Amino acid sequence: MEVNKINLNTSVNLEDNKNNTSKNKLIPLINIDCFNKDNINISTNRNKSINFTNLIETKFFVGDIKGNKLGYISEKDFINAIKELNETNINKDFVVISKDNKFFIYELKNNKFFNDDLDNYSELRISPEKIQIPENTKLVAISSNKRSFRFFYNDKTDKNVYEKIENPLPDESLESLSKKLNLVLNRLDKMEKTLTASKDHKGLFVSMYKVITNRALKEMQGYIKEGKNKEAEFVVKLAINFANKYFDAYDNLVNGDIEKIPEAWRYAFDSGRISKVDNYPRESLIEILALSMNAHILHDLPFTLKEIGFNPKDKVINDTFDHFNKALYEEKDNIIKAITKNYGNKLENFDEFTSKIDFVLSGFSIKKREPITQNLFTSMRTIAKKSSQNMDDKEIKDFSTKTANSIISLIPGGNYETISIKDNLSIFFNKNVQNLFKKR
């Protein structure tokens, strides 16, 4: 969004770098070039830096009501209605609000100094406080003209109340850890039965994740039989903490604490909500799984490794981590069977699915390397391992978000996205990202 040559008077903070002082001064902002990006204003005036925020506070608000003025009953109804409105309301964005248990669609407007074009999903990351809606109503969603939707309210399809599973303690016994891992599997089993019965979008990842967690259980049991307690403890601690990252995101979605959901997971959940309306077209199914894997592996896993004190210099632990990565790919047939059983024959070619994500990840690679389609799990988890050592929390979040941008750009499904050359280059030349690919 852009503002050019505004004629205004405003009080700004002028910095005097020479004397290390600053003072407020009322000056005319004539012929100032101002650019607004993600609600941050950057301005220049004859090559002098002016530090100020919110020159013009960007406020979004509802315009004319669209579609059925009596409102819509379900999420499916208003999503389909917006798709129809996109055919006749070119370059219009929409906001959905609820009142008296009905959904109403309005045109989304914003400050007159800014254009109204919010094409891509990443541009819909607007703080709810920035959107002015009528009194006694609730913000539900916003939608761009490019089929992107961003939801601000809970997904109520799972009404189960799940027991909180505590993260592993540093000196916790294997017996206690085993019980916790069984609680994780019991929850996943209950979630799968609940979600897949109604073909709920959230059940797609659960079907995959239950297979993977069962493999973690088998690995742990195998290490115990061999007397390798250190390896067993690492696998189970990793599995429990890792699962809780996903459970937290899931519970925040269901409970309506949307702003607590990591951005990478919001991509996956929002894509799934739209795709369900169309009964999961094949590309859409791939997008949901790819976004979910991105969120869980490239976002959640680095944080898990940090929290459990993973040290790649510990050869036993590092080898255990790498071994488990390879073991996961052995489960690909079981993953395909689980998804096919619950959602139909739409994931017949797993290699094609992995090659889609391979193409995305290769966009971040600095050096030529071997294709990763034969072992996608190993590749993604290796990236996560390195990012846990080389990136701080913000960089991990930004990296997983930008990877999600690329996924929905290259795998059009629930959300439509285009990632700019500038965004790709900002990742490409980031030293921390380069470090991820120096040794693969």
Give a short synopsis of this structure.
With 440 residues, the chain is α+β, with helices and mostly antiparallel strands. It is 50% helix and 16% strand.
Strand fraction: 15-25%
Number of helices: 13
Shape: elongated
Low-confidence stretches: 1-56, 365-374
> What class would the helix/strand composition place it in?
alpha+beta
Q: Element order, helices and strands?
A: EEEEEEEHEEEEEHHHHHHHHHHHH
Main sheet strand line-up: 1-4-5-6-2-3
Biggest sheet descriptor: 6 strands, antiparallel
Question: What is the total domain count?
Answer: 3
List how many beta strands DSSP finds. Answer: 12
Residue share in helix: 40-55%
Radius of gyration, in angstroms, nearest whole number: 24 Å
N-C termini distance: 39 Å
Mean pLDDT: 80
Q: What is the multimeric organization of the chains shown?
A: single chain
What does this molecule look like?
By secondary structure, the chain is of the alpha+beta class. The protein has three domains: 2-51, no CATH class; 60-151, no CATH class; 174-437, no CATH class. It is 50% helix and 16% strand. A hairpin with a 4-residue loop joins strand 2 (9-16) and strand 3. The chain is elongated and about 70 Å long. The two termini are 39 Å apart.
